[in-house]
Amino acid sequence: MKMTEIRWHGRGGQGAKTACLLLADVAFTAGKYVQGFPEYGPERMGAPITAYNRISDERCTIHSNIYTPEFVVVVDETLLEAVDVTKGLKEDGAIVINSSKSGDELRKHLNGYKGKVFTIDARTVSEKHLGKYFPNTPMLAAIVKVSGVLDEEQFVSDMEASFKHKFASKPQVIEGNMGCLKEALKEVKEV
Amino acid sequence: MSIRERISGNEAIATAMRQINPDVFAAFPITPSTEIPQYFAQYVADGKVDTEFVTVESEHSSMSACMGAEAAGCRAITATSSAGLAFMYEMLWVVSSSRLPVTLACVNRALTGPININNDHSDSMGCRDAGWIQIYAENNQEAYDNYLQAMRIGEHKDVRLPVMICQDGFITSHAVENILLEDDDAVKAFVGEYKPENYLLKHDNPLAVGPYDVCPYYMEHKMQQVEAMKNAKQVILDVAADFKATFGREYGFFEEYLMDDAEIALVLIGSTAGTAKACIDKMRAEGKKVGLIKVRVFRPFPGEELAKALENCQVVAVMDKVEGFTNEGGPLYNETAAACINLNKRPKMINVVYGLGGRDITTTDIEKIYNHLYMIKETGEVKEHYLHIGQRSNVKEVF
Asked: Do B226 and B296 share a domain, yes or no?
């Protein structure tokens, strides 16, 4: 059974869990079987947190954490110094980091990881379209693009429908989020 | 027509509660079951239910409120976890002995000592002898389906016992997965209304609930509870049969996964069954005859049926997600072993304690256990029958 396994690293309060659940949501809408679950410890703002996705065409019955993911998403680059983010990451997979730094600079913190490294500057994208720093939507778009787990066009239209439903009373937020989404799909790059 | 959805185990339970629209929900929040009353409070605020939602100051009071409501003739529910369930302990016994079919959604979490919020079964296993029916789930779907069956079982005139619907904290309660929900009207029609024969507010038949029981009567009353628990077995099967006829999904006392020709088997409860199934698929592809029994109904304990399902196995590991400090093994092991004691031919059996305080268990761990069972099969010798897996330890590593 073809199954895509993704691990998210973020800090409490930044929305890595929300982004993980959004990915589960949109993959579900695309007809997939999904799992989206956070790993809970003592919860406090700013503490490192981990969340996971399994996405497949048949139901996955495994209920353990993910130790050898195909993809890793790092929502906060300061975690690179605190957490072994590439642990178990498959070399034919990829890591997506929210950063404006160069590949050489980032690789210093990746414990010799030989796979592909992608970056997206979610802060710039978010501040441009939303006027505030919400890394969720850009990171979600970046991992969809890099993983190829969903059809890009369908992803864009499903997300638009989802935002329209979620922010029915705040249409300006819909436009900003869609702007983030589309720009992140374009701007995510291998470094 | 089933509705394809994706929600967490907690939202699945809350959805079932909304669909059933009980008379009373008394709740005090505790991780990881907090979301259940949280979702339900929203349904109350939105007018989607007309339940009397009672926010109490403790779990002792939430169970007391459920008891009062049920005694008055209402359908009453609550949800809790861990220390919350422990704090209800006294009332659990009063409710079951008063034959009040309260339904409790238990989201399993380790009991404090040291404090921990993650999953194991120490909370519900700690009250396994309190006279409640206990039904466990592997995933969000089973939690939902079990909840829809709970009231028909507990409220049945041959049973009249409270029911605990358990799922693994965080692992299923907070994981968003695909699920099939049923239509509101179909659920209401399946569950039906609660029409108790006797209750406090019935004008023409006054009664007392919970009076002192003197020595000449106490044991007879306990025997009535014993009979009710025995009767519950048939009712559980009847309700499951009707559930299958109505919604298409099949349930029994336990699920047998590739047991027909299994030489080696695991017996366990809850979400780890899914992880074990993935491991079994891999080992079966390698030609190994391994199987699994996932216990769904722990109270009443289906000992006779379980023994029959295991009698052709050669080696069995019963896995407990709770430490009983018995020096002999956990409750599932002890009861499974006891159920098999009178078989003419019975498997060798060991206990493996796992997953305490949320310690993760993987397909690799499960494979190690099966390999250990193969070693026992080959040598014909059980050196140790009481083992733990997944912990860092100074003592000799078995796995």
From this structure: no
CATH number at residue B361: 3.40.50.920
Residues 6+ apart with CB under 8 A from B359: B390, B391
Per-residue pLDDT tens over the stretch B284-336:
999 999 999 999 999 999 999 999 999 999 999 999 999 999 999 999 999 99
Query: Predicted ipTM?
Result: 0.94
CATH class for the region spanning A3-190 = alpha beta
In A47-106, DSSP assigns E strands to 48-56, 71-74, 94-98
pLDDT grade, residue A1 (50/70/90)?
Answer: confident
CA distance A36 to chain B (A): 5
Tell me: pLDDT of B394 over 70: no
Arithmetic mean of pLDDT, B240-248: 98
DSSP B131-199: S-EEEE-SSHHHHHHHHHHHHHHHTSTTT---EEEEEETTTTTS-EEEEEE--HHHHHHHH-----S--
Q: Which residues of B touch A34 (CB under 8 A)?
A: 6, 176-178
> How many beta-carbon pairs below 8 A join chains A and B?
64
Question: What predicted TM-score, i.e. pTM, was given to this entire model?
Answer: 0.96
Among partner residues A33, A40, A65, which is closest to B360 by beta-carbon distance? A65
Q: Work out the mean pLDDT of chain A and round it to a whole number.
A: 94
Which amino acid is residue B388, in one-letter code?
H
CA distance B128 to chain A (A): 25
The structural domain count of chain B equals 2
Chain A residues inside the 8 Å CB shell of B273:
61
Q: Where a domain ends, among B247, B272, B291?
A: B247
pLDDT interval class at A47 (50, 70, 90)? confident
Using a CB-CB distance cutoff of 8 angstroms, which residues of chain A are in contact with residue B118? 40
Q: Are residues B127 and B224 in the same domain?
A: yes
- Where exactly are the structural domains of chain A? 3-190
